[in-house]
């Protein structure tokens, strides 16, 4: 653009620089990609089988279960995570230590192990409940769904707690002080002022955690929860179309991850309100804006 | 004007670790009075204001606002510490304006102003919004209600912050260097709003280095150094004939930093007379975007 303008002003023909390196690397990359695609197209994969099973009842049921357990585990993880983060930041030393211990445990033990422990909880406690209120047999309570929910959700909450804590610490202390000086109740100080601003910092890593939980839910096969991979496995044990069904599963995971990415974008925009146009005028950097104003006026003057 | 005592500080002390920051502050402010708090950096001015608003808790001495003890409640011969809720109630009558504005960046200007009335007094939203619009008009920002703070100039942000504090109907306003973060050309519009507020009879404690403002608006200047009040008196005397050497020293430096001649400066010439002037100049400039 700039070159064209200069050339036009001087009445000359612009000749752009040639990027030989870029051309060469692009050609190599395209060739390699073509080779990979060809390998899969001509390999021993029956693509019409893939197409056929993509919408098979069994697969769709597994997909629905995967979606449900991911959403439920994420919800549990975020709620518990916020609670743990608040405890971690509180002035109460006991709450503090307990929260730190919680994060240490649930982040440290592998998810697969956590799933198995929840699923086999009946070996330790034959019955569970709240004394005097309600009691039930652990085997009945700890269904594959419950075990997966607790396993994935609590593991997730430990990560979420750290993400939320970081987000809260990133909010300027002046925000809390301004809110307090306005006599806002402490609930509103956190819920209306601090948390919404922390969300801006929290959402991007939380989006990653969502995707990670989605994929980790495939481990729930070990506790016989009928999620997507488990359903696909049941199908290929019968028909032996192993690779085709694994491709079906991969396609669905990619599709759901893409939908999540779009959702994340929308949520980021929601919590970015008031921040996006700020970049050039943040804080006392009002100076930049003031100068911009002067520049704008000058330009207008020179045009006139 | 009544002579009701709004604030009474008695022997207030405060230390951060080993550092004594306030070393016995005694100060009484009566209704309608404008007190300018001046003094070198680190002398404890902000800390004192923050004690009045209970963002800090004094180590010794006590503070009373409208004869009510801050942070504590007498019961028989015991002194009981107040709960968060009771502290919030005490803060309700006190507005505070910060050096760095501290507007809520995720809320619009209007939401910034309505947030406190809506949350604290359960005022119906519609009514809170009407009051908020009136306040924004008073600070010359009637059309900025739907803007986000990040879209405003520093001077406009600080005026929104003043409107936000006024929305809780305070009887005492605290200003902690409200113009120090602003470009020189934006200082006037904020001082103009504060001047109008003072004329309307608001009781104000203003920490400032603006000698011109202090001379024109303050009823009394209190000069602090090293955590104590070194000297206080009417601006005419304190600014032109300070008796304490440290006051002299400080005033010489402040006026030098502001580039003006010694005390009777042309400072006032830079500040618009009324809020309206500031407003029209402002909208004319910003309207271009
Ligand atoms: N939270 C804190 N922790 C430790 N020290 C603090 C804290 N707040 C203030 N101080 C110290 O207390 C002293 C007085 O601070 P204060 O902010 O009250 O001074 P000031 O008079 O407002 O100065 P300035 O003009 O620079 O704003 C300074 O030395 C400061 O470093
Ligand atoms: Mg200060």
UniProtKB/TrEMBL annotation, chain A:
One of its GO terms (cellular component) is ATP-binding cassette (ABC) transporter complex. It holds the Pfam family BPD_transp_1. PROSITE patterns: ABC_TM1. The chain crosses the membrane at residues 23-45, 65-87, 99-119, 245-267. Keywords: Amino-acid transport, Cell membrane, Membrane, Transmembrane, Transmembrane helix, Transport. It is a multi-pass membrane protein. Its main location: membrane. GO terms for molecular function: transmembrane transporter activity. Residues 63-264 form the ABC transmembrane type-1 domain. Residues 278-304 are annotated as: Disordered. It is found in: Cell membrane. InterPro entries: AA_ABC_transptr_permease_3TM (IPR010065), ArtM/GltK/GlnP/TcyL/YhdX-like (IPR043429), MetI-like (IPR000515), MetI-like_sf (IPR035906). Residues 288-298 have a biased composition (Basic residues). GO terms for biological process: amino acid transport. Belongs to the binding-protein-dependent transport system permease family. This is Amino acid ABC transporter permease. It comes from Streptomyces radicis.
Automatic annotation (TrEMBL), chain B:
Residues 7-251 form the ABC transporter domain. It is found in: Cell membrane. PANTHER family: AMINO ACID IMPORT ATP-BINDING PROTEIN (PTHR43166), L-CYSTINE IMPORT ATP-BINDING PROTEIN TCYN (PTHR43166:SF35). The lineage of its organism: Bacteria, Bacillati, Actinomycetota, Actinomycetes, Kitasatosporales. The keyword DNA repair does not apply. Residues 254-289 are annotated as: Disordered. CDD domains: ABC_HisP_GlnQ. Its main location: membrane. Its EC number is 7.4.2.1. InterPro entries: AAA+_ATPase, ABC_ATPase_HisP-typ, ABC_transporter-like_ATP-bd, ABC_transporter-like_CS, MetN_ABC_transporter-like, P-loop_NTPase. This is ABC-type polar-amino-acid transporter. Keywords: ATP-binding, Cell membrane, Membrane, Nucleotide-binding, Transport. SMART domains: AAA. GO terms for cellular component: plasma membrane. The keyword NAD does not apply. It comes from Streptomyces radicis. GO terms for molecular function: ATP binding; ATP hydrolysis activity; ATPase-coupled polar amino acid-transporter activity. Pfam families: ABC_tran (PF00005). It is an enzyme of class 7 (translocase). Residues 268-281 have a biased composition (Low complexity). It catalyses: a polar amino acid(out) + ATP + H2O = a polar amino acid(in) + ADP + phosphate + H(+). It is a peripheral membrane protein.
